[in-house]
Amino acid sequence: MIYKYSFGLFSLGEDIITRRDVDDEKKQLEISQETTWYHEGPESLRISRLWIAEYSLPRAKARLEEARLMRDLPNAARTAKRQEIQKKIQNLAIHSSQIGDTRPISSCMFSPNSQLLATGSWTGLCKVWSIPNCELKQTLKGHNSNVGAIIFHPKATISQEENVCNMVSCAFDGSVKLWDFKSEEPIADIEGHMPYRVSKMGFHPSGRFLGTCCYDCSWRLWDLHQCTEVLHQEGHGKPVHCISFQIDGSVCATGSLDAFGRVWDLRTGRCIMFMEGHLKGIMGIDFALNGYQLATSSEDNTCKIWDLRKRSAVYTIPAHTNLVSDIKYQKEGDFLVTASFDTTVKLWTNRTWQPLKTLSGHDGKVMCADMSPDNQFIVSASYDRTFKLWTAEDKCDNL
């Protein structure tokens, strides 16, 4: 009996040692999970990050100097400008309505010179239209599935030749295509996303880099000069749906269907701001011209205004009665435009975020909206297969 009892104690001691080993392993695992791990990247990434740093620093300095000059303007002058803008917004009305395709129009964007409009459709076709006549100038054939977005290069129609990459489009099958103004066929493809959907894209303000949002829960940064993917960034728990680059070019922001947004420092790769507050997925994201304000739109029917300096949300706009599909700042940042599945487009002041105007006219969900750089037009594209141009009735020079 004594022998058996001793053996029992010996077995119990082994169990305690084993349990301690397991606990130690768990502690080590927890410590490793809390540690940020860095892996050596390719030489192309180092080249890109150095170039972005050199590009963004003087732009940030110039932006801050301009902000100081604006701060010194008399309050009366700033108030008069806001009142003039709001008065002209009240006069907004439909300028023209155009059937864009046989299926929903999923994307629309003005060219940098405001004289062209690019639209993408669920037919897989992209089209380029003249503004304000809405005459079809070019049909881009290449996608075999729903187009997610088509965007203009920042220097297209301004300083670039017509036979280089002036537009980029993406589709649900993961295809990304580059286009010029001369051909109906793509001049190049960007491969690496298939079979995952590419929902939205954004150009770095320099035009050298392209950011793509992929439904494999990552976003990619492509260096068009080096013709390679320099960054494959993970961090979101669900598909990444939208992206926006800050005007300096130093950071970008991404929004995901996990309801969270993140701001990334392109020079280091760090996530410098985590945006938590939406109840459902983020559908649209855009930086203001001032460089520190950021707006997001969501499936929860709201929009949020974020301050990069405070790293927090500063205001929530109960914007629509349905999903808010898109959000854009006016070029000067005086107001916001939102598009929603409730069939309306709305404009909001950027000072108090109060409603300025509701644009009604679509028969279906409004998929996206944009403002022309010259402030003459607003465009909205819809599930009803049309896009509409809106402008002030008095044909004023600026909104």
From TrEMBL:
Keyword Thylakoid attached: no
Entries under CDD domains matching the protein: WD40 (cd00200)
- Record-linked Pfam families: WD40
- UniProt entry tagged with the keyword Repeat: yes
UniProt keyword annotations, A-Z: Repeat, WD repeat
Could you provide one GO biological process annotation from this protein's UniProt record?
mRNA splicing, via spliceosome
Q: Identify the InterPro entries for this entry.
A: WD40/YVTN_repeat-like_dom_sf (IPR015943), WD40_PAC1 (IPR020472), WD40_repeat_CS (IPR019775), WD40_repeat_dom_sf (IPR036322), WD40_rpt (IPR001680)
A GO molecular function held by the record = U4 snRNA binding
Q: Which SMART domains match?
A: WD40
Q: Which GO terms describe its cellular component?
A: U4/U6 x U5 tri-snRNP complex
Start-end of each WD repeat: 98-139, 140-189, 233-274, 275-316, 317-358, 359-390
Which PANTHER family does its entry note?
PRE-MRNA PROCESSING FACTOR 4, WD40 REPEAT PROTEIN
What is this protein called in UniProt? Answer: Uncharacterized protein
Provide the species name.
Answer: Photinus pyralis
